[in-house]
Predict the 3D structure of the following.
Amino acid sequence: MDRAKPQSIEETDQQRAASSSENGDSHVDVESRFSASEANHEASPPLAPYSVLTSWEKRGVVLGASCTALLSPLTAQIYLPALTQLSKDLHVTDTQINLTITTYMIFQGITPMFVGALSDSGGRRPAYLACFVLYIAANIGLALAPSYGALLGLRCLQSAGSSSTIALCTAVVADVVTSAERGQYIGFTVVPNVLAPSLGPIIGGLLAQYLGWRAIFWFLTIAASVALVPIVLFFPETCRHIVDNGSVTPPPLYRSVWQSIRLQRRRREKRGRESAALEKTTTGASSASTPKTFHFKAPNVFGSLFLLFEAVNGLLLWTSSVVFAGFYALSTGMPALLAKNYGYSEVQVGLMYLPMAVGSIGAATIAGPLINFNFKRHCIKTGVPFERSQQQDLSGFPLERARLEIGLPLLSLAGASLIGWGWAMHAVTHVAVPCVLSFILGIGMVGFNNTTNILLVDFNPGKAGTATAANNLTRCLVGAGVSAAIIPMIDAMGVGPAFTLIGGLYFVSILPLLVLLRYGMRWRAEAVKAT
């Protein structure tokens, strides 16, 4: 027994030693495997960013594009206070002068279909430059127009030149900004749609009253010329078909003046280097200094029309047009109502558009971060990585819910404030009441349109110009109809019932959005499989 005990202890010690040895080997193996995995991870090249632009460069590009987008709505509204002068000077009726508004809106809806599709395949800078040249030439002609026929024809050219700037602006944002941060940037592209119509009547009224109607077109000529200068000098080509994420140098005709100067300077610095040194440059620097072979793709100019009949896009487009119908109804009916009920002059009427403009700016500031926050929340909820610098695969992500959870309450707010505005004007309340309600309407309407614009770009990657052109088409068609119908509606029904009907459509339009929430992701998946 005494001998057995030591043997047992020895065996136990040997087993422990063996176990310790095995554990040590296992620990070494784990460490070696971890080190190898870490080395492989470090060896793998990082993914290229969605855009090589810095945050400040993105802000500059988006700000520049948003400023150009002011032209279309500003041109439409700045003209209105001069209608009476025009009819007298050109010796035509008010109905004939109103025809210049109708033709303008027709071209405003149609032209972006072609320009947006062309810019998706042929570049943003050529589209911008062509639009500005046409627009400036048309304004000079309008300032010198000798007859009604010249006015009518040149207004069509003016519309063709200015109307595509909104579609191009949204397309530029889609080129440089990922879905994760799109809410922060794209909100500023909606502001021109409300800010310019609010400021346009004030500027137009002052110019027409003190300098005459021709001064309006000289003002637009100067404004467009000033806006064109930074585009020529600094605005980069952003179309991903041409420059990818911005790391590829575009062909010479697509370069800004500043980009051409930098490229020439870079080439002079490299001229004395040996060819072997050039081969050792980084991939990013090499691609940035070598122009990409660019092949022009024939665009599908009717792609915007096809989007109207797709389930996902169609529901969103028609809902967005209904919301803007309320804006057109208010902006068209307001001058006559304020003049009749409050005795306001043209300049005072123009000032009454400012509360809605302030509300729209507030919406662009607040709604964008909210949309981004909700997108991040759904990424965490669904386990999708949240990447600001990378465009994610969102085919299985609930995009509709992430965006519309913010948009639907804003749509309801806009509908309620529009109905309230109509009844405030109906009862001829203190002027502060419609001012406050129009401010709230600006928040709700622009905030909701932020979500629809973002969703349209999300639904149509690589076709942002085409999608925005479709949005513009439906808005202009519905807006033209509402602008023509609102005064007869008010005369027949009264102000309160007329705006209750239009505001009620806001709440009715919630139904197709609920359908989109329920089936949108499935429809997108089916569309991907079909292609």
